[in-house]
Here is the input.
Amino acid sequence: MNLEVQTRCVHEHVAVVAFSGEIDVYTSPHARAVLVDLLEKGYYHLVVDLRRTDYLDSTGLGLLKGALVRAQEQGGSVRLVAPPPKVQKLLEVTYLVTVFPIDATEQDAIAHLTQGGTES
Amino acid sequence: MATCTGCHVELRLPNRPEFVAVARLTVAAVACRMGFDVSAIEDIKVAVGEACTNAIEHGVPAEQCAEMVTIACRIADDGLSITVHDPGVGFEPGAAASAAHAAGTATLTEGGLGLLLIQALMDDVEVTSTPDDGTRVRMVKYLRAGEDRE
Here is the structure.
C-alpha cells in the first residue's frame, strides 16, 4: 500500500495525523479507519499533516470532509498542514479551502488548538 | 511526439481499486511523452483516476473480474483524448451534473467530487451512460502554447 500514516497524540483531545504517499480509492479505507479511530477515542481536534501527501483524489477529499463532520459533531475541528501545490489546487477547485483552516506548520496548527480556547 | 499523432494506447484493467494507480501512471507517462507540462500531467492523472474510481464504484461488482475498465488514449496533434469506459449499469448524467454542482457548495458529498474534479481539470468532458453500454467518460486535455509538440 503506497500510503504511510503516522499518528501522534499531542494534547488532550488533539492528535496529529501525517499522511505520506498517495490517498486514493485503494488507500483511503486505511486512512479513513485511522481518522475514525482517533475520533472515537476522543481526539476530536485533528491536525492532518499533508506535507508529504504526493497524491490525493476525491476519496481523500471525501474522507477529510467526513472526518470534519464527525469532529464537529463532537465540538471538534480538523486543520490541514501545508498541502503541496497540487493538493492545494484540488482543495480550491472543490471549494474545500473555505471549509478547512490551513496552517503553514504543524506547530502553528497545534498552537491554535491548544492555545485558542478550543478545549473548553 | 508529432510522429505519434493518431496513435492509440489502450489499457484494459480489472475493476479493482489497486489498479487505479496503474491507469493514472500509464496515462501520465503518455502525456509526458507528448510534452505536457508538469501541472497539466497532474491534472490528467487526477482526472483519469477519478474516472476509473467512478467506474469501479458504480460499475459492475469487483467480484466479476472478467469485466474490465477500459482506458483508451488517442494522441492528437493538439492534445490527448482519453476515454474511460465501464460496462456497468450506468447512471443518469444529469443527476451526476447536479451532484457535481452540489459538490461545489457547502452541501458537498463525497460522491459528487469526482466529476467536479474531472470537469475542472480537463478542457473538454463528455459523459454518456446507458443501461446497455455502461458509462463512458471522454475527456480531452489540449497542449497549450509553449508545451513541446515534438
About this structure: The longest strand of chain B covers residues 134-142. Chain B has a mean pLDDT of 83.
